[in-house]
Predict the structure.
Amino acid sequence: MTINIIDIAYTRLKTPDVAAATDFATRILGLEPVDRAVDRLSFRSDSRMSTMSYEIGDPSETIVGFELANGEDLLNAAKTLEALGYEVRYGSHEEREQRHVSEFIAFRDPSGGRIEFAVSPQIGGNGAQLSRDAGITGFSHVGLFSRDPGRDEHFWTQICNARVSDRVGELPLLRLSQIHHSIALVPADRCGIQHINHQVQSIDDVQRSYALLSQHKVPIVFGPGRHPTSGARFVYFEGPDGMVFEYSVGVREVDEETYRERQFGFEPKSFCMWGATPKNQGVGYIDLGPGGQRAWDECDRIAR
Ligand SMILES: [Fe+2]
C-alpha cells in the first residue's frame, strides 16, 4: 500500500554547541525560538509550532519529519515499511511533545538518513514571530543526501507518493503537493540533510538577506541566483556544523493533470540560469562526493 505523505513538516538537527546554533537560528536565520531548554531548542518559521530544532549531539544525525493525514495512514505506513524490512520505531510521549505532533514513527531511508512520519503537527494560534525581518513565510523543502538517487527515488515515488517534477542529471526534484519540490535527492557518499529551505516573501528579502549574511561574514555557498527547474530565486549559505540553508522565493506550482517531468543536463546552467556557481561544493548545494565533484568541475570547465 502506497504511503501517502501530505507535506514536509520539520527538521531536527544536532550540534555540539546549542548556544551558538541558537544564535545563528535566531539572529541570522530569523526563526522564532520556542520550548527553550538547556540542551535543546525548537523554532517556528510559519503557523506550525515546530519546524526546526537543535539539540546537543552529533551533527551528522539529522532528522526530517513528514506529515501523514491520520493515525490509520501512519499504521499502514508502519506495516508497509516493516513488510519491506525497514526497522520502524514509534515515538515516545516525550518525543511527541518535543515535535508538537500527536504521534510519529521513525525509520531510516534507503541511504541511512533518519526519517519520521508524523500525524497532526500542532498549529499555533498565530504565525511565527520572526526574530528578524527576514520575510520568511515558512519551511518548504530539504535536500537529502543519497548514496543511490535511482534507488532512493524509487522509495519516495513507489513506496511513498512523491512525484518527480524534474531531474538534473540523476538528481531528482520530488514533489508532495503542487509545490515544485519538497525533496531533492543529492548524490553523495553520505546520508542525511543536505540543505534546508525557507521560503521568503519577495526577491527583496533574498537580496536583503544576502547583504546581511555578507556583513556577518556568513559563508555564501551559492547565489543569489535562479533555478531554471523550479523558477525560484535563491541564496544558499552555511550555518553551524556545515549545514546549508536556503532562502528562496517564487517556486513554481505544478498542475498535477498536465505537468510532465523534465530532464535537465547535469551542468551549471541547470542549477542557476543567472550564471552563479556553488562556491564550495564540499559543503554547498552540490556535494557529489569525489566522482561527482570531478563531473561538476568538468561541466563547469566546458561551460566556460
Ligand atoms: Fe533548495
